[in-house]
Each structure stands twice: as C-alpha cells, then as structure tokens.
Amino acid sequence: MYQSQGSSLYLYVNVERNKIHMIFYFSGTGNSEWVARQLGQLLQDSVYKLTDLLNGKPDFPQSSDGRLGFVFPVYSWGPPPVVLEALAKLEWKGAPDYLYFVCTCGDDTGKTAQVFARAAARRGWRCKAGFSVMMPNTYVCMSGFDVDEPELAARKQKLAPSRVEDVSRRIARREEGFDCHEGSVPWLKTYVVRPMFNRFMIRPKKFYASEACIGCGLCAKSCPLENIRMVEGRPQWGSRCAMCQACYHHCPKHAVCYGKLTQKKGQYLNSLLK
C-alpha cells in the first residue's frame, strides 16, 4: 500500500487482478481523512490527496478501470466546490468500473448525492453508490454555528467506526444506490441555500490572526490549498480558499479569527487520527 505525505487529501491504491483501486479525499479537520484511511485499510485500497491535483503535484496513477472513491465533508448541503473542481479537472484515461463517494456530515447531507452524481455524469461517469457518515460539526464561520459539545462529538465518534465498517463491506460487494441522511427539505437546502453560501461565504478576506499569534506557521502548514503564506512571522491569506477552516482549528493559540464570527467559539480536530 502506498500513502503520499503532506496535507489533507489522500488516495489509497490497491492493485487487484490488474486493476487499480483508489480513494481520493479532502479534509480540513480530519473527519474525512480518518474515514478515508479506515476505508483504505479495510478495502486495501490506496489513498492520495485530492488537493495535490489542484496544487499541480499529482502523484498517482492517472488511469484505472477499477474501483474509485471520493471522501469529502458536506459543505452547506453539498460537496465542497474544490471537490467538484478536482473531479472536473482530473485527467483520467478510461472510466472506473465502480465510482462511489462517502461524505462526512455533522447533521444531514441534503442533495449531496445528486450534486456529485451529476458532476460525475458531466464527464461521462456514472456514480454507482454514495454513503454518509455522521461526524462532529466543525463549521464556525457564521452566527449560530459552532462545534459540537464534547459529549455529542464523542458520541458521534463512537458510532463512526461501525458505520465505516458497514460502508466498506457494501463497497466491497459493489452495492449500488445512495444511503445518505438527506434530512428535512433537502432540495431547498442544496439548491437555494447552498448557492448563496458558495457565492457569499466562501471568502477568505475576513481571516486574520489576533495578537495571540506566535508565528508558528501551523495555519499555513495545515491549509490543503496552500493559500496561507507566513510574512514576517504573520499569516497572510490568499484568495484560493475552500473554507475548510483547517487554519482556525489547528491554531494552538486560538489566534485565527474570521471577523467577529468566531469569537468565543470552539475548536475541533479529529481525535481518532493517529
């Protein structure tokens, strides 16, 4: 098994009967990374960073007629735009014989499955299966949104391993269909709320470091899109932001702020990762 090193979007590859089986993942706080790693171990597939593709550093086979999976968090009831961008740009010879996704969500997914399947169809692929795994909430950049209370986060993490094991068995059997917790009014959330979120809320301009910043550079190191530069010991955000909030949650001094919207809010990193 091969595992690339670096930031937070990986791909595990398994060669079986001359076919290459892979899992791409995108992750800011570790929830989707943990799911991808677990699936990689259970399925004996290989994992690569999806962001390596967007950062111009693809280090994975670019053709396969085997199993291909994408693991990512749900952002405003849909796949992160960066995941859809990577799916569209992926240079690939042939088509996977079993394309699936696994999305992590704090509550519900909306029409994430439909959005991903349509994006795959635009490049001539059929998404045959999709699954959701409930994980702790991480979004803090809007009023009324915060990380889960420790008890709730622990309860979600306790249930996650059995869910991932079940998903891995269904992927191994190549089951078809979508098993995602859509929640209430999913169409409204995905096709009305989500476009507004993508247009107005995926903006890094409000990020800044408070006086508590010690210049350690963890925010820059944790950014999967390499959007943060350290200038004279202080972070500076560029325009290429996925709003994954890795910078905010990785800061050891809680010094990364998003305007006034992150004041008195919690931080979260997946504790299951080792």
Topology of helices and strands:
Blueprint: E1 11-16, E2 19-25, H1 31-43, E3 46-49, H2 51-54, E4 67-73, H3 81-89, E5 98-105, H4 112-122, E6 127-134, H5 150-172, E7 177-179, H6 186-200, E8 207-209, H7 218-222, E9 228-231, E10 234-237, H8 246-250, E11 256-258
Parallel strand pairs: 2-4, 4-5, 5-6, 6-7
Antiparallel strand pairs: 1-2, 1-3, 8-11, 9-10
Helix pairs in contact: 1-5
CA(first)-CA(last) distance: 18 Å
Report the biggest beta sheet as strand number plus sense, adding barrel if it closes: 7 strands, mixed
Estimated structural class: alpha/beta
Number of strands: 11
Element-level helix/strand string: EEHEHEHEHEHEHEHEEHE
Radius of gyration: 18 Å
CATH class of the largest domain: Alpha Beta
How much helix is in the residues? 25-40%
Instruction: Please count the helical segments.
Output: 8
Q: In one word, what is the shape?
A: globular
What is the second-level CATH architecture of the largest domain? 3-Layer(aba) Sandwich
What is the spatial order of strands in the main beta sheet? 3-1-2-4-5-6-7
Number of domains: 2
Mean pLDDT: 91
CATH superfamily of the largest domain: Flavodoxin domain
Tell me the CATH topology of the largest domain: Rossmann fold
Oligomer: single chain
Question: What percentage of the residues does DSSP assign to strands (E)?
Answer: 15-25%
Poorly predicted tracts of residues: 1-13
